[in-house]
Design brief:
CATH class of the largest domain: Alpha Beta
Structural class: alpha+beta
Largest sheet: 5 strands, antiparallel
Distance between the termini: 62 Å
Number of helices: 15
Radius of gyration: 30 Å
Order of helices and strands: EHEHHEHEEHEEHEEHEHHHHHHHH
Number of domains: 3
CATH architecture of the largest domain: 2-Layer Sandwich
Helix content: 40-55%
Strand order of the largest sheet: 1-3-5-4-2
Number of strands: 10
């Protein structure tokens, strides 16, 4: 039985989320099972349409504090039981919640000035305890070591229920993992670019499509870019080959000097953490914004309810927890930590609902002023890796252009600046031949 604690600012928003459908509509049959609101009728407040009254009942002591109220007065504890054991009844979960708030000092038995609290359920094998940190006598509960006391109470309850393991669990026999074929793309001392490692036909076809030539001698099969390849094209071809090989589940070690997709930072000089570097770019855009409208594009990348950074991060944490459970069902405590972290992200999203509209309202015109070219350039930079992955091989593009030019036809006029085959930051990518 594991307890996780977190804090929130808004009581009503917290209850709306817990009684709502939740992420991916995983909340089912939300119901109030226990609580003590110091005279407020819990039975009436348990109705779904009474959430505003329930939030007011919990928050009344906080409102009486006025300016003394803490920034995050809502205290939430999520307790999950062992998935290998039978689920507890609502009455048993209510007893768990009561013992947790008593152990932490939020609501000790017989204390007439204890904090107000409720316990609700919306998923199997889990209970959520929600309370506010203001006591009836006007004092504030100090949450120091609450996590320790809550977990100790859960350990005692699990031992009483017989859920504590009596013998060490035997690790499962893991299936043998076949290592992925490895390809190394490097710059040789002579300056040429070579690809060595995997010798199967699929990797050879991918490298040939990218523009490499196959060499077969006493060293075995390997691939190398033609010596006539312009220096400006070598990195682009090598990066494109590496992306195609990785998409085919090859492990690729690409020389940093050939990787055009890497975004280096002072803390990541080799550009290994690409996602973090892109978020850092958004941070730099926000720091450099002179007006709210100038920051709006970067903030929208963070908070967009469909494709923003917070949404994607929450999905990644949730998927990690699910994958850990699939890999080892006994590792549910670790999986639970990722699941709770995903809930933290959901809570952060709830805290920032409407923030984009408020930021837009800070601009007197109500519209995003500024250079639309810069906004498009920023959007292009954020998707540079995807564009590179979808692009055709630079070598194949060059070959197609040479083969399509007939000797008798007049030579094509030089392309004006910005009309080449590569995408332009200020507009849609030009159509490739």
């Amino acid at each position: 039985m594991i307890a996780h604690l977190y804090r929130a600012r808004d009581t009503a928003g917290t209850l709306n989320y817990l009684f709502g459908p939740g992420r991916h509509a995983r909340h089912g049959n939300p119901r109030l099972i226990a609580g003590d609101c110091h005279g407020a009728p819990i039975e009436m407040l348990a109705q779904a349409d009474a959430l505003p009254y329930l939030a007011h009942a919990l928050n009344a002591p906080v409102e009486r504090l006025g300016t003394r109220a803490p920034d995050r007065p809502v205290w939430i504890c999520s307790v999950r039981s062992d998935p290998h054991r039978a689920d507890l009844s609502d009455a048993q979960w209510g007893e768990v919640a009561s013992r947790v708030v008593a152990a932490t000092g939020l609501a000790p038995d017989g204390d007439p000035d204890a904090c107000r609290w409720i316990a609700l359920r919306n998923q199997p094998r889990r209970v959520h305890v929600v309370t506010t940190l203001a006591r009836e006598d006007g004092r504030l509960h100090h949450a120091y070591r609450d996590a320790f006391h809550a977990q100790k109470a859960c350990d005692r309850i699990a031992a009483e229920l017989g859920h504590m393991p009596t013998t060490p669990s035997t690790p499962r026999t893991q299936e043998p993992v076949v290592p992925a074929p490895f390809v190394t793309v490097t710059i040789e001392p002579s300056g040429s670019v070579s690809a060595k490692g995997a010798t199967d036909d699929l990797s050879a076809a991918i490298l040939k499509h990218a523009g490499f030539q196959q060499i077969q001698d006493w060293y075995g099969r390997r691939h190398r870019l033609p010596t006539t390849t312009p220096a400006a094209d070598r990195a682009a071809i090598a990066t494109h080959a590496a992306e195609m090989l990785r998409a085919a589940r090859y492990s690729v070690d690409l020389d940093p000097g050939l990787d055009t997709s890497r975004i280096t930072t002072p803390t990541d000089p080799h550009g290994v953490y690409l996602a973090g570097a892109q978020v850092l770019q958004l941070t730099d855009q926000i720091k450099g914004a002179a007006t709210p409208a100038a920051a709006l594009h970067a903030v929208d990348q963070l908070l967009n309810r469909t494709d923003g950074v917070l949404v994607r991060l929450g999905e990644a944490l949730e998927a990690t927890g699910e994958q850990i459970t699939d890999l080892d069902s006994d590792a549910y405590p670790l999986a639970d930590r990722f699941a709770v972290a995903s809930e933290f992200i959901s809570a952060a999203e709830g805290e920032l609902i409407g923030a984009l509209e408020e930021l837009r309202a800070l601009d007197h015109s109500g519209q995003v002023r500024g250079d639309s070219h810069q906004a498009k350039a920023a959007a292009y930079d954020a998707t540079a890796v995807i564009s590179a992955a979808q692009a055709a091989s630079p070598a194949a593009t060059r070959a197609a252009a040479l083969s399509s030019a007939a000797p008798a036809s007049p030579a094509p006029s030089p392309a004006a600046p910005g009309q080449g085959p590569w995408p332009r930051p200020g507009g849609a990518p030009a159509r490739r031949p």
